[in-house]
Amino acid sequence: MTDTGTGAASEPAVSHRIWTVPNALSMLRLVGVPIFLWLILAEHDVAAFVVLALSGVTDYLDGKIARRYGLISRLGQLLDPIADRLYILSTLLGLAWRDIIPWWLVVVLLAREAFVGAMAPWVRHHRLAIPPVHFVGKAATFNLIYAFPLLLLADGDSVVADIAQPLGWAFAWWGTGLYWLAAALYAVQVRGMVQRKKAVIA
């Protein structure tokens, strides 16, 4: 992940480098999206579980490496949320298609994406930079990315499935709530940026 936090005083330097280890991990995650979707629709659940789990691990590692070694880049800030959203979208559609999760959950999470997307013209109109990813947003993504492998694992009759089901839904509920909270915070961020820009111009 390439979360840069929100504290302006401690904001790390952001480069324009393309070929960094965190960016390579984000690119690998993007390559894994269609592979995962095919695996889950073809009901190759073990392989789908492995791909999804690996995406969660690389999602954690790219942010840690970027911050630890000063490899935060503009490209990484773009690729990371795209990969997150594509994994969440493909997982939602795949699991709903398999009747593992209800379609209303898909609607709730996609409505959040539409809410955030509706602010994009506002940001472009005022020529603002994309706000940095908020900690709450990363926590929401973390919960959702770990919820889906558990819910996939819960689709069975084994003891492991019985254990995975409550854990998966706990992550899903927390993730959904935090996802909407992050959207509200994003709106506040954008509103503040617009007000500060207007104050500077005035």
TrEMBL record:
The keyword rRNA-binding does not apply. Belongs to the CDP-alcohol phosphatidyltransferase class-I family. Signal peptide: none annotated. The keyword Transmembrane applies. Its main location: membrane. InterPro entries: CDP-alcohol_PTase-I, CDP-OH_P_trans, CDP-OH_PTrfase_TM_dom, CDP_ALCOHOL_P_TRANSF_CS, Phosphatidylglycerol_P_synth. GO terms for cellular component: membrane. Keywords: Lipid biosynthesis, Lipid metabolism, Membrane, Phospholipid biosynthesis, Phospholipid metabolism, Transferase, Transmembrane, Transmembrane helix. GO terms for biological process: glycerophospholipid biosynthetic process. It is a multi-pass membrane protein. This is CDP-diacylglycerol--glycerol-3-phosphate 3-phosphatidyltransferase. The chain crosses the membrane at residues 103-123, 135-154, 166-188. It is found in: Membrane. GO terms for molecular function: CDP-diacylglycerol-glycerol-3-phosphate 3-phosphatidyltransferase activity. It comes from the Bacteria.
